[in-house]
Design brief:
With 206 residues, this protein is α/β, with parallel strands linked by helices. The protein has one domain: Rossmann fold, CATH 3.40.50. It is 37% helix and 17% strand. It has 8 helices and 6 strands; from the N terminus they run βαβαβαβαααβαβα. Helix 3 links the parallel strand 3 and strand 4. The longest helix is centred in the N-terminal third of the chain and has 18 residues. It is globular, with a radius of gyration of 16 Å.
């Protein structure tokens, strides 16, 4: 982009996403925001099997560099699954960013803690990334949603989950919440119903 963008859209992929940043970036571009720089940090799917902290550090470096290049440009964030957990951690560590954040959109992110992760690591022994994804981050997410307009999109494919993440674990007090029906966890990154909800949310914000 030869001239300064009007907004920056950070798009973050989730765990074991073999397409890496490509799918979530396609969603970001499909939303067709004018004069927008799309930044989709790649953390590589193999690394998502281990620990969250190196992933946070990797994305933090990309975000810090981008914000320093465009110090006056507002940002939007869309993150799916583990990517949403990562961004909640990032925003908690960087409240100085909050005033620049137009909106935060979380797609199927287990902010309340992943029930599958608790099954993998029931005693909190630190088995790969299961230890990190099992943590309930609701309290820190609520601090963020009190200051940053937030949309949470979950899906119920039956029995209260999207096939991977429970609807209950995605909800955050203070955020707008939409529960779709029969949209699988991977499809939350690409489904037209998700794009429609994101646009409705942005339009309500003006």
């Amino acid at each position: 982009m030869s001239v300064s963008p009007q907004t920056i859209l950070f798009a973050q992929h989730g765990m074991t996403d073999l397409s890496g940043c490509q799918t979530i970036a396609r969603l970001a571009y499909a939303l067709n925001l004018k004069d927008t720089l799309v930044v989709a940090p790649e953390v590589h799917w193999v690394r998502t099997l281990f620990y969250l902290e190196p992933l946070i550090q990797s994305v933090q470096a990309v975000v810090s560099d981008t914000l320093s290049q465009y110090p006056d440009v507002p940002i939007r964030i869309i993150a799916t699954s583990m990517g949403g957990v990562l961004w909640v951690e990032l925003l908690d560590r960087h409240p100085e960013w909050w005033s620049r954040v137009h909106s935060l959109v979380l797609l199927g992110s287990p902010i309340g803690g992943s029930h599958i992760a608790r099954m993998v690591d029931p005693f909190g022994l630190g088995i790969g990334i299961a230890r990190d994804l099992a943590i309930d981050r609701s309290a820190i997410a609520q601090k963020i949603t009190a200051k940053i307009p937030t949309l949470v999109v979950g899906s119920d494919c039956g029995n209260g989950h999207d096939g991977v993440v429970s609807v209950e674990s995605t909800a955050i007090r203070g955020a707008e919440f939409v529960c779709l029906s029969d949209v699988s966890h991977p499809d939350l990154r690409i489904h037209s119903a998700v794009m429609k909800e994101i646009w409705k949310f942005w339009e309500r914000m003006g």
